[in-house]
Amino acid sequence: MRIFNFNAGPAALPKAVMEQAQKEFCDYRGSGVGIMEHSHRNKLFDEILANAIQNFSDIMGIPETHSVVFIQGGASMQFAMIPMNLAIPGKPMEFADTGTWSSKAIKEAKLFGDVKVIASSKEDKYTYIPEVSEMKVDEDAAYFHITSNNTIYGTQFQSFPECPASVPMIADMSSDIMSRKIDVSKFGMIYAGAQKNLGPSGVAVCIIRKDLAERTPANVPTMLRYSTYIDNNSLYNTPPTFGIYMFGLITNWVKEMGGLEVLEKENNRKAAALYEAIDNSDGYYHSPVCPCSRSKMNVVFRLPSEELEAKFVKESLAAGMLGLKGHRSAGGIRASIYNATPFEGIERLTEFMAEFKKNN
């Protein structure tokens, strides 16, 4: 039975993509060898890699000043790789602290230099994104780091801060990358774990301005240097070939769907329908997130009691919906509605919510 998957990550994948991968898993394009068996030095994989990068560049509008690289270790390894490569002695690394993942990035950066948190919603349990116009980035900072969408707390930057020309803005976009149109040129680096909108877990994609890779100190190990991945087209060692293959299929699907303009419109429609169900429930369901900061990827809400929340999760699974339990650190309910979540899933969920309220 195929059910609706609301997991935060690894998350839902488009059905058409999984069916194509299933078809090619044991015999890729008549080669007699399964896709996971092909060498990364094979011409067939060269085509897979080139297609994935070109698709992504087309979809995101990535300028020639930036490179696209694939790195293992997920987004969490980037928390350390970024300061290892981009910290500048004597200059602060500045952060907006808007949730668990930004706080983890801050913790790692402190191992490599001076860190300044210039905006935070921690004291209010991360229920909103601080006003971007009040994020005053020091023109002498090494870089400024944000987390564009906070998977656990259900908040999202609706617009982005302005940085001095001398300061690259770096964004962890793991949970909302390729869900809306953005101006990539405004960022020195964007990185994301693949397991939400880009494919299966096991790989992170980084969009990095080429000149930033020249900052790396000489004592940074080879496999932790961005230049290693840029100079070798992510092929210095064996990359996560299956993850890159799936990334290519996902980007093919996005193009077939009509690109980011179409996806963003559909994502807005899905989020609006779910928030409407929450807001029109006479308080039975309520979102702790400030309306101005609500995420369109991760919708979090609460019920009148934790007992009812546990019952909601149990009965929703029986009704064909997986992964609605909130993160262990935040509790409540969380519906992750990434690109691959169809509107039919939102309809199923909102109908269940109405029925659950009626019965409880």
CATH superfamily of the largest domain: Type I PLP-dependent aspartate aminotransferase-like (Major domain)
Q: Which percent band covers the strand fraction?
A: 5-15%
The gyration radius over C-alpha positions equals: 21 Å
CATH architecture title of the largest domain: 3-Layer(aba) Sandwich
- The strand count comes to 13
Mean pLDDT: 97
Through-space gap between termini: 27 Å
Keywords:
alpha/beta; Aspartate Aminotransferase, domain 1; globular; Aspartate Aminotransferase, domain 2; two-stranded parallel ribbon; seven-stranded mixed β-sheet; 9 helices; 360 residues; 2 domains
Outline the fold blueprint:
Layout: E1 4-5, H1 15-24, H2 43-60, E2 66-71, H3 74-86, E3 93-97, H4 100-109, E4 115-120, E5 143-147, E6 149-150, E7 155-156, E8 169-172, E9 189-193, E10 204-209, H5 226-231, H6 241-257, H7 260-279, E11 298-301, H8 306-318, E12 321-322, E13 333-336, H9 343-359
Parallel strand pairs: 1-12, 3-4, 3-5, 5-8, 8-9
Antiparallel strand pairs: 2-10, 6-7, 9-10, 11-13
Helix pairs in contact: 1-6, 2-6, 3-4, 7-9
